[in-house]
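@channel sequence for tomorrow's demo:
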Amino acid sequence: MAVFLLSGCVRYDVGVNWQGQYRGQITQHIQLGEQLTSFSQSEAKKWLKTIETRAKALQGRIKRVSEQEVIVTIPFANGQEFGEKFNQFFNPTEQNPQGVELGENSDVVQLNSQVVVNQSNLLLLERDRLILDVDLRALSIFAGEGELVINSGNLLNLEFALNTPWGGRNVVRQDDTAPPVQKVNHQLIWQLQPGKINHIEAVFWLPSYLGLGTVGIILLMWGGFYLKYRVLS
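structure tokens (generated this afternoon):
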């Protein structure tokens, strides 16, 4: 699960729930606060509409809680599809494979990010390495004509948390680009730093169902061979 929280103005929770080797979801819960909507309700509503358009282009589901609150769920089938959908959603100038525009480059909240997932199949296990860069150097809230309304750097509490079945391991040493990290149960939680490029890398393992199935078939065949030629002969 990844959580982006903008205190006072916008609450933006983005969850990456890795449920297995071939199943997962990107979930987003977006709630606009009174401080933001009082400045520009039309821009805020336009932004929520853009969010919905991007989600539908990526086969996502949308639940409208209210005019200021929306819940989005985008499924993915594997690490490659997760990376493609995550990058397409959070980079609005890109297009999806069908050529549908995913949104305008006029977000109320701009989270410029890029994720890569490298996967290695080790028969019974799959090793995944997640690399995420989040550029928060220019995170601000703008009015319709681009006039700066609020410099949101002082209003932010941003976290990124990775939630996987067996947990994960942080593999980046602390430096100027690596945000502080802590581990809570099966979650790795990074405290993202506004005004900086945040670089995150983590390794986690998933069971390989194909490998486990192959081993099961081999054991079943060996058991049949042993029963036929050693026990019943």
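heads up for whoever presents: The first helix runs from residue 34 to 37.
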